[in-house]
Amino acid sequence: MKNPKMVANAEKQRRFRERQKEQGKQQVRGYVSPQGMESYKELSAKTGWSDSELLSNALRITYAAYKCGQIKLLNEWLKDNDK
Predict the structure, then answer these.
(1) How far, in Å, CA of 9 to CA of 65, rounded?
(2) Domain tally for the chain?
(3) pTM score, two decimals?
């Protein structure tokens, strides 16, 4: 028989994921390089953004650079600044 606390926690997590989906949010995750983690910590400290907000805004900024034809410039800056 399953532990009641584990079942309750799994149910709580399921409800949380359902609420996020209802709000139109989608979970996206991956592994982060050491340089990326450094940038994450710095941005988190300076902005006070949550993990979710950081990821969402990073994607939006990258997309904006792409739409403005600046993605090559962004990549070059990242390489030159070792970030």
Answers:
(1) 40
(2) 1
(3) 0.64
